[in-house]
């Protein structure tokens, strides 16, 4: 590797280091930077946006109701931990929806709120495109595959039995959703691999808990504390182990393309991620693994919660 070289004028350095004005300004800058790093993070609130509730509140249901009642046509702020949340009235929805990522970024806010630099949590363009375009386009074919996977998933998690059986709703649905989505995201056998399954299931919980724990330390310590918080360490291990499992599949596909560039590509989420990635990201197993974990984060618990709620509603209203 060739290291970059640069020349420096010794006399200039001496005159800078001997100048009290320059050194004084540098010290002030350093002190300001240190204070900024150690201070609890504060964010600019929108002007004239009244704050409802306290940052120490465990839940904000009442604050939301109060805010909506008092300010139906203007913004109000809920002082959620680390990142206060500004609630905007529906009349601004179209305007906000039209703003590009460069002005109002969902991706940046997710990464900032959940410390994506350390937890990996976030969303990227590759993921959004693969879901919005490719997954949507292939939905009919996917339904057939899901039907096949349902048989396996139900037999594994509930059993092939004619009688009624009591099962925990959330846990059982979680396992079903993980198997079904895994079938579309990586295909089997990998989708049924226990290490992979556990990683895709646990990443969400450990990622969010890890971010929450990291936030209890000043920002300056985050790069170090990531190695001491068990949940953040687990997230790193899911990525490492996941990459080991994905590596042979990636290698096989790369080899197939080298052998015959015109060969038909597989049509699954691994391939869409590879094809939709920028530059060399698509050849990078770590990047593809991370994007795979992210898709599990956005897909598995959300779908499970919605389905579990539907089951509870049916039980509460059997009519
Ligand atoms: C019932 C289950 C689901 C719920 C309730 C849900 C909810 C949400 C919500 C609230 C957002 C944020 C949207 C925004 O503020 O702009 C979101 C974003 C997203 N969701 Fe879901 N989601 C569900 C299932 C899924 C599934 C199954 C996938 C993937 C297969 C998925 C992929 C995504 C992606 C990629 C984004 C980011 C979109 C973007 O940045 O444009 N979601 N979801």
H/E series, N to C?
HHHEEHHHHHHHHHHH
What about the largest sheet?
A: 2 strands, antiparallel
Tell the overall outline.
globular
The radius of gyration is 25 Å
Q: What percent strand? A: under 5%
Please give a structural write-up.
With 319 residues, the protein is mostly helical. It folds into 2 domains: 42-98, no CATH class; 125-316, no CATH class. 62% of the residues lie in helices and 2% in strands. It has 14 helices and 2 strands. It has helices spanning 10-17, 20-38, 61-70, 93-97, 106-113, 116-119, 125-137, 139-157, 169-185, 194-214, 222-225, 230-259, 269-276, 285-316, and strands at 76-78, 85-87. Strands 1-2 form a two-stranded antiparallel sheet. β1 (76-78) and β2 form a beta hairpin. α7 crosses α13 (269-276), α8 (139-157) crosses α9 (169-185) and α12 (230-259) packs across α14 (285-316). The protein is globular. The termini are far apart. Mean pLDDT is 88; it is low at 1-8.
Main attributes of the structure:
319 residues; mainly alpha; 2 domains; two-stranded antiparallel sheet; 2% strand; disordered N terminus; binds protoporphyrin IX containing FE
Lay out the secondary structure.
Elements: H1 10-17, H2 20-38, H3 61-70, E1 76-78, E2 85-87, H4 93-97, H5 106-113, H6 116-119, H7 125-137, H8 139-157, H9 169-185, H10 194-214, H11 222-225, H12 230-259, H13 269-276, H14 285-316
Antiparallel strand pairs: 1-2
The chain binds protoporphyrin IX containing FE.
């Amino acid at each position: 590797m060739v290291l970059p070289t640069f020349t420096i004028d010794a006399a200039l350095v001496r005159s800078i280091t001997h100048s009290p004005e320059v050194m004084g300004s540098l010290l002030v800058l350093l002190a300001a930077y240190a204070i900024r790093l150690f201070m609890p993070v504060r964010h600019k609130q929108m002007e004239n946006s009244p704050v409802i509730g306290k940052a120490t509140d465990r839940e904000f249901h009442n604050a939301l109701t109060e805010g909506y009642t008092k300010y139906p046509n203007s913004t109000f702020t809920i002082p959620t931990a680390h990142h206060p949340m500004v609630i905007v009235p529906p009349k601004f929805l179209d305007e906000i929806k039209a703003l590009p990522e460069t002005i109002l970024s969902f991706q940046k806010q997710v990464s900032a709120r959940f410390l994506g630099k350390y937890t990996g949590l976030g969303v990227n363009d590759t993921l959004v495109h693969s879901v919005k375009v490719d997954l949507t386009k292939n939905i009919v074919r996917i339904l057939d595959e899901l039907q096949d996977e349902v048989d396996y998933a139900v037999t594994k998690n509930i059993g092939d039995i004619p009688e009624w059986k009591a099962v925990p709703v959330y846990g059982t649905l979680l396992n079903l959703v993980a198997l079904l989505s895994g079938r579309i995201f990586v295909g089997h056998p990998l989708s049924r691999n226990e290490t992979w399954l556990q990683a895709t299931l646990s990443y969400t919980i450990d990622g969010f808990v890890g971010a929450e724990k990291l936030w209890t330390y000043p920002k300056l310590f985050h790069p170090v504390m990531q190695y001491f918080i068990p949940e953040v360490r687990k997230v790193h291990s899911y990525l490492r182990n996941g990459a080991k499992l994905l590596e042979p599949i990636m290698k096989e596909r790369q080899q197939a393309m080298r052998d015959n560039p015109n060969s038909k590509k597989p049509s699954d989420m691994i391939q869409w991620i590879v094809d939709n990635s920028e530059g060399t990201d698509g050849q990078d197993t770590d990047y593809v693994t991370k994007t795979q974990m992210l898709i599990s984060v956005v897909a598995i618990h959300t779908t499970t919660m919605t389905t579990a709620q539907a089951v509870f509603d049916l039980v509460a209203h059997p009519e």
